[in-house]
Design a protein that fits this description.
By secondary structure, the chain is mainly α. It is built from 9 helices and no strands. The longest helix has 22 residues.
């Protein structure tokens, strides 16, 4: 049981800024097994965002409450997903070969494609949530976070890791995912949809 808790906390540590006990680290064997909990991490992050939205909706407008919710989930994940999306935009906007694309994705600087992509994707996220019926917004926030991480798990399962080198921090999480891990991720990932 302690090992399973450590695997879960490894997923929390890898994908969020939520404090974990000092005995939890990024050991590759735990990081690789943590993929089954990616969707559960999504539920946790989404619940934080939903709670912030709900609490502030008593004080502010729907628009401000949504913005505060989005800011909170971005902070809770340490901009992990936004950084990856911006890197992808820069790489596919400015790279013409596989090598150049991978080089740009590894670059920590943010380019015009990345900035444009971030502005647009956050605008789409805000607009989509704004168009959601008010009583469904909290559940939609939670479901969005859990389902997106489930989809990421299925992509990791069905596609090979693109980088051949072993120097990537994320590579252990993208290796040797089993079907049973995907099924566990699916249970957590799709569970919030049952609440609709």
């Amino acid at each position: 049981m302690k090992k399973e808790i450590q695997i879960f906390l490894t997923a929390i540590m890898f994908f969020t800024r939520i404090p974990c006990p000092k005995w939890v680290d990024h050991r590759p064997e735990f990081l690789q097994k943590s993929a089954k909990y990616f969707s559960l991490v999504g539920i946790i992050v989404g619940s934080i965002g939903a709670l912030i939205y709900y609490a502030f909706s008593f004080i502010f407008s729907t628009e401000i409450s949504l913005l505060l919710s989005i800011v909170t989930t971005i902070y809770a994940t340490g901009t992990f997903h936004e950084d990856g999306f911006a890197d992808m935009c820069d790489a596919f906007g400015g790279g013409w070969t596989k090598e150049k694309i991978l080089l740009i994705m590894k670059d920590s600087r943010l380019g015009t494609y990345g900035v444009s992509g971030l502005i647009l994707i956050l605008a789409v996220k805000f607009s989509a949530l704004r168009e959601t019926p008010i009583h469904l917004i909290p559940l939609t926030i939670i479901a969005g976070h859990s389902v997106s991480r489930f989809i990421a798990t299925t992509l990791i399962y069905t596609h090979p890791y693109v980088r051949d080198t072993d120097d990537s921090k994320a590579k252990p999480a993208a290796k040797n995912i089993t079907l049973s891990m995907v099924i566990v991720s699916a249970l957590f990932g799709l569970a919030p949809l049952l609440s609709f």
